[in-house]
Design brief:
Oligomer: single chain
Helix content: 55-70%
Largest sheet: none
Number of strands: 0
Number of helices: 5
Radius of gyration: 42 Å
Strand content: under 5%
Shape: elongated
């Protein structure tokens, strides 16, 4: 059953209607203004690339909350841990999907090496950071220096040692 159109329905939109040439029976292709300018393909590509280039902001480490050394250690540690995670994932995939125990064992060894290296690197950095912060705190606080001096045991040179004291008492008793 074919439905007939009624008088009240609007005509369908014809997207090609605006490109029809009344003088000929064909469709005309619109022209882009740069095609008439006499430029070639390379100059068009070059102009598009220049227009699309965005200015890259210059970021310095002075704008960050941490010093450059800490930032360098952080990204090195991130890289080491990422390698360990990748090696572990590949190890599991080789074992499960391929059934290749040899490659899986090699990759598991790589995982363990990089994990150990990451842990060692983290602990060394943490130890160095704690030691430097402790030294900085001691230098900054004069009360801390006085309390450290009072914590040290005093050496008494005038008192005789117990062994000398016991020898004198045994000699006197004879």
């Amino acid at each position: 059953m074919v439905s007939d159109r009624t008088e009240n329905e609007p005509d369908e939109y014809d997207p090609e209607a605006e490109f029809r040439d009344p003088d000929s029976d064909s469709i005309t292709i619109p022209r882009v203004p740069t095609e008439d300018a006499g430029s070639g393909l390379w100059s068009d590509l070059r102009s598009e690339m220049e227009a699309d280039e965005a200015e890259i902001p210059d970021l310095s480490s002075s704008e960050t909350d941490v010093d450059g050394e800490t930032l360098r250690h952080f990204w090195a540690l991130v890289f080491v841990i990422n390698v360990a995670v990748l090696a572990f994932a590949l190890s599991l995939m080789f074992l499960i999907f391929e059934g290749n125990v040899t490659y899986s064992a090699y990759l598991l060894a790589v995982t363990l090496v990089f994990t150990g290296f990451g842990i060692r690197r983290y602990r060394n950095f943490k130890r160095a950071t704690d030691a430097s912060s402790t030294a900085d705190n001691r230098d900054d606080d004069p009360d801390e220096r006085e309390s450290e001096a009072s914590d040290e045991p005093l050496e008494l040179e005038d008192e005789p040692l117990e062994s000398e004291h016991s020898d004198d008492t045994t000699a006197d008793s004879k």
